[in-house]
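Researcher: We're teaching a course module on how sequence relates to structure. For the next exercise, students receive a sequence and then see the predicted structure as tokens, so they can try to spot secondary structure elements on their own. Here is the exercise chain.
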Amino acid sequence: MPHYADGTECKLGDFVKGRLANTEGVVAGTVISITPGAQACNAKVRFTKVGSAGPAVDMMPIAPRMAVGRPVLLHSMNHNSSGELQTIWDCEDYADIQNLTRID
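Model: And here is the predicted structure for the students to work with:
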């Protein structure tokens, strides 16, 4: 099995942070797939991305590049009763395990 930069073995279900192949910035998520023997893109990480739904509530918001499925829509304040409408997307992206850090 592939290992993180610190030498620990990567396992399915590990909670990790790091840079992914097609997603900007540092992301925290869960390892959902591992490809032993591959040098790059040897893991897939599932993470959540939150964004503004925008002014047109009746239109489908633009999905993040690595989104999986449809978003959950909710208001940002007072237990979903007021505030700006937000989208919560499930996303998946590939990563090199050497670029990830396991979060304990």
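Model: If you want an answer key for the exercise: The longest strand covers residues 82-95. DSSP finds no helices and six strands in the chain.
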